[in-house]
Amino acid sequence: MKVLVIGSGGREHALVWKIAQSPLVEKVYCAPGNPGIGTIAENVDIKVDDLSGLLSFAKKEDIALTVVGPELPLSLGIVDLFEEYGLKVFGAQKNAAIIEASKAFSKDLMRKYNVPTAAYEVFTEVEPAIAFIDRTGVPIVIKADGLAAGKGVIIAQTRDEAVAAVTDMLSGNSFGAAGSRVVIEEFLKGEEASFLAFTDGKNIIPLASAQDHKAVYDGDTGPNTGGMGAYSPAPVVTPAIHEKAMQEVMRRTVDGMAAEGRPYRGVLYAGLMIDGESVKTLEFNARFGDPECQPLLMRMKSDIVPILLAVAEKDISRVQIEWHDKAAVCVVMAAEGYPGDYPRGDEIHGLDDAAKIQDLFVFHAGTALDKDKFVTNGGRVLGVTALGPTVKEAIDRAYQGVSLISWRGAHYRKDIGKKALAR
């Protein structure tokens, strides 16, 4: 069969890498893809929001399964469109993808169906928002309502920071239309984990646990990014926490979405805050996390294609997933200045040397080709991902790969996975 993956980042490189290993698959296409993806699949020059172009390609090439990576095409209704034409597609329909496309919707859903989350209010005007900040106190969390590529969350430590964030978002400066409504919520203490599950709208199959590192600098300092690294498994997700996340977060959310007439099919990502035995939901995403997808797929022993097909066919009742006992760690190498402005076009050195390390793979996220050389072309450039018998060995192997790769101003966190070692 032929498979089309939509997207161009590290998550999509990981999906293509895993799908290409399936004996069921003869050819993988990726739209628009990136040069790293182009070494294992055929890149197709169609943008992720060109739904009609993607549909035409899928029909022309007789694509048996389309896998949607990023949130934008999901929120635009690509799944609805493909299904209308009888095509098999993995991802959430438009009316279900709103769980990520609108923070206000997801918070209201959680409130209605008793999914544990932080106390919050939604605002469209600056003055009432500032009054709420003054009542609640700092630190406080301010979120753009719409899609902001993982960067629409500001944890304000001072009143001035909070007021500036709200004013900036609601005046349309920070995130454009995505910030025309803001969700302001209490700051939760604890340790974050990423909890992902496949669902057909009824049945839920959890993936292995994972933990993302959102802040740009070591020690979880600096502004939030799309993610600076991830590891799996996450020891903070104990068997008791896992059970709580399944029953109180995933089960209630999937059942709630069905009750709302928005059956959720695809992969559902819950960002959790864990404090002792308490589990609260920070956010939902309607797709694989990036970079969590990279270590998760390196640990997945099962062929992923039958799983994706079962979701697309709306019945995962017979699906089982096997995992490697090994741990996996992904260290993101980013461009200087990210998540702010950053340069492009710097030549990347050392990729061939890193590729020689066993149980290590370098996923491309923001790269381009200049003649025959890989150059930087995004904020998050590479996801250096390694397996190891323990988290410690996976960390060491990933950083061994990182040490061999360089470009002008390359930046990465040096403490990815440290929380796991502390446990």
TrEMBL record:
Catalytic reactions of this protein: 5-phospho-beta-D-ribosylamine + glycine + ATP = N(1)-(5-phospho-beta-D-ribosyl)glycinamide + ADP + phosphate + H(+)
Record GO terms (molecular function): ATP binding; metal ion binding; phosphoribosylamine-glycine ligase activity
Cofactor: Mn(2+); Mg(2+)
The keyword Manganese appears for this protein: yes
Pathway field: Purine metabolism; IMP biosynthesis via de novo pathway; N(1)-(5-phospho-D-ribosyl)glycinamide from 5-phospho-alpha-D-ribose 1-diphosphate: step 2/2
EC number, as in UniProt: 6.3.4.13
GO biological process, alphabetically ordered: 'de novo' IMP biosynthetic process; purine nucleobase biosynthetic process
Name used for this protein in its record: Phosphoribosylamine--glycine ligase
